[in-house]
Amino acid sequence: MPVFYARPHPGDSTLGVDPALASWDRAGSPGQARSAAFIDGVYAAVAENVRATSGPLALRLDVGLADTVPLYALNDLDNYLFPLVPKLTERTGRAFASVWATKRHAATSSVGVGAAVPVDDPCGTYTFEVTTTASADTTAFKEQVRDQITAASPLSGRGVALQLAFVVGPRRAWPNLWKATIDALGSILGRDDGAREWNARDGRIIDLGLHCAVDPAAGDGVTIAIRASAIGEEVTA
Predict the structure, then answer these.
(1) What is residue 11's predicted lDDT score, i.e. its pLDDT?
(2) Which residues pair with 222 in a beta bridge?
(3) 170 upstream amide cis, omega within 30 of 0
C-alpha cells in the first residue's frame, strides 16, 4: 500500500549555487553546465548527512525565486528534483524514499536530508488512488492515470500542494514516473487555453512531496496515491 512520509525540517544548508531545472540540451551546453553545478552543490551540502543517517532517506529542497519571476508558472518543481535525485543516489549509493520541493519568492535556496519518517495519510481536496501497468515513457501510462481521475475539476486559486505516493516493483526506477504522472493531472491542475493534452499547469505546484514504497509482488504494476489541495504562497515548515 502507498506510504506517506513526513516533510523533513527546513534545510540547514543554504545553497551557494542557483537551483537548476533539468536540461536536455547537448553536453557542454550552458543548461547542462548549470545542472551539473547544481547537482555538485547539493551533493556537497548533503553528503555528510547522508552518511550519518541510517534507514530510508528524505530530501527537502526549498527553491528561492526572484520577486520578478512568476511563482505559479514555469519552474516546475519535479524538474528541479530530476535528475538531481537519481544523481545523488548514484554518488552516495543511497536511495531516497521521500523527496520534497517547494518554491517561493526568496533570496536564497536551501537543501536538507533526514530520515524518512512514515506519517498518516495527509488527505486533501482530492484523494485518488490509481494503478498503471504501462511504461512511463508511453502515452498509455498517462492515459491510464488520466482516465482514473476524471471526477476531478481544476483546483481553484493559483497555488497547489501535491503529494504522490508510489508503490513499485524492485525493477522500477521511481523517479522516471514523476513527470509522466504529473503531466496526466490536467483534471486537477487545469490547462492553459489551447494547451495540448499533457501540458497540465504543473507550474502551479509550489509544494511537492514524492514518496516511494517497494513491493516485490508489484511486478511492472504501479500504484499511485494522489493528494492535492489549493495552497497560498506560505509553505509548511
Answers:
(1) 67
(2) 132
(3) no
- CB 166 within 8 Å of CB 98: no
Decide if 222 contacts 134 (C-beta within 8 A). Answer: no
Specify which residues 225 forms β-bridges with.
Answer: 129, 165
31 sits in which H/E element: helix 30-52
The dihedral built from the CA positions of residue 213, 214, 217 and 221, taken in this order, carries a sign that is positive
Residue for cell digits 498503471?
Answer: 132
Q: What angle do CA 31, 33, 39 make, to 5 degrees?
A: 105
What is this structure's pTM? 0.96
Assign domain 4-118 one CATH number from 3.30.1660, 3.30.1330, 3.30.1740, 1.10.3470: 3.30.1330
Per-residue model confidence (pLDDT) at position 237: 55
Residue type present at position 150: T
User: Where do runs of H (alpha helix) occur along 105-192?
Assistant: 139-146, 178-183, 186-189
